[in-house]
Amino acid sequence: MNQPIRRVALFCFLLIVTLLVSSNYLQVVNADSYKARAGNERNILDAFAFPRGKITTADGVLLADSKPSGGIKYKYQRTYPQGSAYANIVGYKSIAYNATDIESILDKYLQGTDDSESVANFMDTLSGKDKKGGDVQLTLESSVQQAAIKALKDHHGSVVALDPTTGAILAMYSSPSFDPNLIASNNGDIADPAAKALDADKAKPNLNHATRELYPPGSIFKVITAAAALDTGMFAETAPTGADPYKFSVPGSNYAMTNENQAQCAGTDLKTALAQSCNSVYGFVGAKLGADKMAEYAGRFGLNNSELKIPLPVVASNFPTPDKIGTNQLTLAQDSIGQGNTQVTPLQAAMIAATVANGGTLMQPYLVAKETAPNGHVTYKGEEHRHALSQAVSPQTAAALDDMMQNVVTNGTAHGLAIDGAHMGAKTGTAQRGDKQNPLPWFISYASIGDKHVAVGVLLQVDDASIRDDISGSGFAGPIAKAVMEAALGVGQH
After folding, report:
1. Four-point Cα dihedral 349, 362, 283, 271, nearest 10
2. I need a surface site. Which of 62, 148, 167, 206 has the fewest CB within 10 A?
3. Is 277 a catalytic residue?
């Protein structure tokens, strides 16, 4: 064979090899990326060709289901029997608008395409069973969730209830919410207007404010400042701190941090000052502890954790790092009483109370109790993945904090909100904002009766400017927290 023919033959061989490599790459190596493209209508057709898995509460209330649609193209319709009650947790599965929240995060499992379901799917295929997705059971308890919804009424705000001993989320609700049935409709004439309305709503009803929004915590943050003060040994629970009972004249500034209504703190010890929520004492204590210790203990209680998932994503609560505070005593004092640049989610607020209730151990919050494959095999149990995020403080410090928070209920700003027969601690907060904005009422608490335990965080947004001076954590958020705790403990009227 002469030289030119050999070159042509080699070139043709290389073309064939290139064709084989590229086709195998497209069909095998890169197949999943092409399959996952949003424009691949086959994925959408497959998603609505058979029943998607159910989502239920811990006590079996149906939250998401698939019903025959009667259509030819899309055979099943995703439905949400509880409407807006769980919308910010469950989310929705839509033909045109994909999926959100649990429906998105556990999409493969609910769809039956997760690797953990492969054996079950194969056996069902062999036995001729119709394909369906896996079921998901959440940790939420319907009675506690309904108590939160009922207590919030028409207020904008968020409620989170945890089992402090395990981290299981018993309730999580943000108001306003929305009806996912509309945007999940197979009928575009219904889904499209619903999607546009959600996108245009400035109140963001489709956002889980309990996990995805940050707010100044106000005085509920004093629990962390007290924890740092006690755990480091720099201050004792009932010994005078050395603070001025009227004001804290911040070094290096012309600012004097005063108490509400310029009041005198009844005592400068940590216990009395927490019960009366004295800024003069806790601003002083935070400044004495220093930026390093305050940031360390904020982190121990869960702030600045950008990796927290439940499995819904959670925006990291914030306490400024020491390099941002520097030597500015005024900034540190304001941050230490929950103002300034300190910001938390309502979930984080509940985690603070839960840590005290659990002897100083902060448990990882979680929402998924169980995942069950179509053949009935349980492939995931949330209780088997429980773990502590940190030992925030020693058991001795937690016991002192518990005594202090019980005193808030007995003799302090949460007086009148006790639950009969329950061991209960609490802290109120009224976070200040801009001149023309109402303060934010907060309430964090925990209670236990026998083997039942609950920790709660409540945040409200009150827009009525005419009652601005009357807004308080105990008056607005406290009764909501009490109703939710009573539901979790199985006592009281709810």
Report:
1. 100
2. 62
3. no
